[in-house]
Write a structure and sequence with these properties.
Number of strands: 0
Mean pLDDT: 96
Number of helices: 6
Helix content: over 70%
Strand content: under 5%
């Protein structure tokens, strides 16, 4: 993307996150609208995703599942992994088994981040290098899944 579209896209994602963030009084419909505009912008540049509204729905759905994991005891990380797998399959057109490792590592990174926040966001926490490693593994696995 050119710099203007990149800046606009970053603003749309930031705004979607701001709309989603307040707990419990967030704005999922408005967050989805921002993400739909983001994915429409991506489509203008790259021709994909074929359905920006569906991409936005799947994106905000994993946010919802993650939020439920944070605040509702008894939820399993498997739900988050499945939600990420659905998003990755849709966005990248790859089969579930190809993108599942990336989703597992991404969910692990989110769990570590949530633990870090619960522990008070200490900058010298032993959780931070673990989270970093999980994110690197997540993006490496996603790259391996989509790189042909």
């Amino acid at each position: 993307m050119d710099w203007f579209r990149t800046l606009h896209g970053a603003w749309l994602v930031l705004r979607a996150n701001q709309l989603w963030a307040p707990y419990p009084d967030n704005h999922p419909k408005r967050a989805r609208a921002c993400m739909r505009r983001f994915y429409a912008l991506v489509r203008l540049t790259y021709g994909e995703p074929s359905n920006p509204a569906k991409a936005a729905e799947l994106e905000v759905d994993w946010w919802r599942v993650h939020r439920e994991l944070q605040h509702e005891p008894g939820r399993t990380p498997d739900e988050l992994v499945e939600s990420l797998v659905r998003l990755y399959c849709f966005l990248y057109g790859e089969p579930e088994e190809a993108v599942r490792p990336a989703a597992v590592h991404r969910a692990t990174a989110m769990d570590l981040s949530d633990q870090w926040v619960a522990d008070g966001c200490q900058p010298d926490s032993d959780l931070l290098p673990l989270e970093h490693a999980a994110l690197v593994r997540a993006y490496a696995a996603l790259l391996a899944a989509v790189h042909h």
